[in-house]
What does this fold into?
Amino acid sequence: MSHFLSTTLTRRAFLASTGAVTVGAILPFPVSRRAHAAPVTEVRLCAAPDRIRLVPEPHGETPAWCYNGLVPGPEIRLRQGERLRIAVENGLDEETTVHWHGVRLPNAMDGVPHLTQRPIGPGETFVYEFDAVDAGTFWYHPHQRSFEQVGRGLYGPLIVEEPEPIRIDRDVTWVLDDWRLIKSGAISDDFGNGHDMSHNGRVGNTVTINGRVPDTFAAKRGERIRLRLINAANARIFGLEFQGHEPTVIALDGQPVTPHAPDGGLVVLGPAMRADVVLDMAGRPGSRVSVIDRFYRGLEYRLVDLAYDSAPLRDRAPNWPLELPANPLPEPDLRNAVRHDVVFNGGMMGGMVMAEMGGSMGDGSSGGMMGGGGMMGRTGSMMGMMHSGKIWFINGKAAEGHIMEPMLTLDRDRSHVIAMTNATAWHHPIHLHGHSFRVIARNGQPTRHREWQDTVLMAPREKVEIALVADNPGDWMFHCHILEHQAAGMMGVIRVT
It folds into this structure.
């Protein structure tokens, strides 16, 4: 992706035109005076309806919702340790916000309507400001009616570069998305329908890279590419196979990981997840090699072709180091961590799965589990709530809006383990705002890389344990990032105090 920062404003003009808020006193982590003197990157984003060339001719342009007339919105790039100030103008006919996904920032800048800020009304402007504490691949999107606002095109990449990046030939961003289009090429208006809400979410029929149906991606033999993958889809999970190539994963959700080949050769990304991979281009000059999405069995398709130039860059790939420097994340103390149990329930076939898994569900307290009789009683009440429009549950409760009592309260600066059970028939990418966490176990087995993430994909019936130090105070959203599941109840608040 080649879109970079929008027109920079002078500080005086920026403050005069936006009524900027001051947030320098509420940073989540200690910052030196030198850091405060770092350059400030100023950006203006305008969310408004526009038309984009989403699919090739003979189809016409597609009406969409855009940032600065673009889908994805402008790629914002800055260096780790720098400060970012973004004026967001709302040109929609409804309220909106912007959430900076995966960024560890002050709670007031998190972009959750009513919980961390008043929504931005039509014609209003809100200023977000925070330091880029971590290097990595992040993204931005609304948290107000996100199942429609994201589904209509409101999202964009946020790239924080390391002070000393690894050596590569090209740094490339692919924002992956899918769209539900009708024959005219327009976006289907069936947002929030009951089937999507209770099943797999809004899976579209047209897949794009950087807002375009892709054909080819130009490459040269011997080239080394850092490919930043962002899944901006409402619900589609991608499982990418780079045929004839051996991608090396070097970061997940913006956080460095021990360089490794992806399991089964597929780079798997649930909604909102990111992966940085290094691709050594090994194809023959003049050849074409396909990237195949193989996540859904029987529904595989060609995403894009890697089209090799006739002239190689090198005979073979360079042997440059791949290890990224670590970000300043506090390491959880697992021996002394407080343990919490969380169970995700509901959706179509949810009662059947709960019964299969032994008739127990978490009651929201630290450590305890409820017996089978209690589960059966709760199952009956949940089935009744599903008929009233409440479809998905965390520890037996369905969210209504973004204001709710905390489902968990975490002592600040203590280590915590959250043991999560997916007692449903569907995948769920579970996202925690304001923090990154280590994924330490799956189905009782330690993970190989103990990867840092902010969104973890849970398979049906899977149990996953995550660990973190709760060092960022505030009320933080904790939810499934299949946006229809979030809207239909799979969302809660975790309080750090």
In short: Residues 372-387 form the longest helix (16 residues). The longest strand covers residues 40-52.
